[in-house]
Every structure is written in C-alpha cells, then in structure tokens.
Amino acid sequence: MDDIGAMLTGSGTDRAAAFTRLLDHSLDRSFRLAAVILGDRDDAEDALSDAALRAWQHVSSLRDPERFEAWFSRILVNVCRDRLRQRHRPSIVTYEPSTVADPFAASVERAALREALTELTPEHRAVIALHYLEGLTTEQIAAQLDLPAGTVKSRLHYGLAELRAAYDAAAREPQGAIR
Question: Which of 3-7, 13-17, 44-48 tops mean pLDDT?
Fold first, then answer.
C-alpha cells in the first residue's frame, strides 16, 4: 500500500494508475451500495461514475490510501443522496424477469422489499444500506457519514420501522397494481 501512496503523490501518470487500482478494487461493492440506495441500476451506474469523477477531482485530499474504500463510499453515498433529493417523485421499481443466475429476482418478497426500500428517505436508506449491505457498525457509519453515533442508531431504528411498514404494504398489494 506504501507504493500506492507514493504513486498518489507522484506524477500525473502515476497518480492516475494508483487511483485506477484503488477504484477497480472497490467498484463491485460500490455499485451494489449505490443500487440499494437508489433502487435503480441505471441511476447506480450514473452515481458511481459521478462519484469516481468527484473522487478523482479530490484525490489530493485522500490522506491514507488504506482508507480509500471508506473515503470513496462516503463520496458515493453523498452523490446518491443528492440524486435522491433531486427526484421529484419516488422511483418506481422496475420488474426484471427472472434469470437463471438469479432465480429469486421475481419473487414476491424480493419485489416487495425493493419497493419498500424506495419509500425510505435518503438518510434512512443510506444508513440501512451501509449497515446491512456493507456490514458496517454504527460507529463506522457515523465516521463515514460524519454524523453522531446516536443519529445513526436513530436512523437505523426509524428506517427499519419505515421499511417494515412499507414492506408490509408492498407485500399486500397485488402484483402489477398501478398506483
């Protein structure tokens, strides 16, 4: 990791190579995080691209290359939150037919959960995704989002309550119902 740190402070070519190596290592995990927060694959790809650009523009502020994933996740979560705030209406979860690779994609429970996630506020969706998708502790989420630990706990508590209520409502709606 020391060689990457040296490369980040080196010439433009070295800096680009080091940034690319760090980013490539966290792309899959970052995409999953963005997809859960935004509830849409296309939006997640766009958010990931925007976050990568923002990270590249501010790579000089990265003090410790070993903390790149946490640093980049924070940028990505903020980009996702900005995108959610810009939406004029809640996103509608699109139906994706089941594939051989993921036979549960069309299940009622999964569709209801996806729809329930879209009903959460951006703040609740972000902490729930970081906690349950990324497996981060309350303290890690607090550090990553620059929030007090109590705020993170509160958002987890109320976010889960919202998620349960939205999930129950989505599970009761008949498949294909128009809102």
Answer: 44-48
Q: Are 126 and 37 in contact (CB under 8 A)?
A: yes
C-alpha dist (Å) from residue 20 to 15, 58, 97, 142: 9, 14, 34, 27
Q: What is the pLDDT of residue 4?
A: 57
Place of tokens 């899959």: 28
CB of 114 closer than 8 Å to CB of 163: no
State the amino acid at position 42 in one-letter form.
D
**For the chain, how many residues are written?**
179
| pLDDT for 100 | 47
Compute the distance between CA of residue 146 and CA of residue 160 in angstroms, rounded to an integer: 21
Q: pLDDT tens digit string along 153-164?
A: 999 999 999 888
**Cα–Cα distance between 79 and 51 in angstroms, integer?**
6
Amino acid at 165: A
Q: pLDDT tens, 69-119?
A: 889 999 999 999 888 888 754 443 444 444 445 555 456 667 777 778 888
Residue 98 tokens, joined: 């089941």
Distance CA 155, CA 150 (A): 9
Contact, 15 vs 7, CB < 8 A? Answer: yes
C-alpha to C-alpha distance for 173 and 155, rounded to whole angstroms? 26
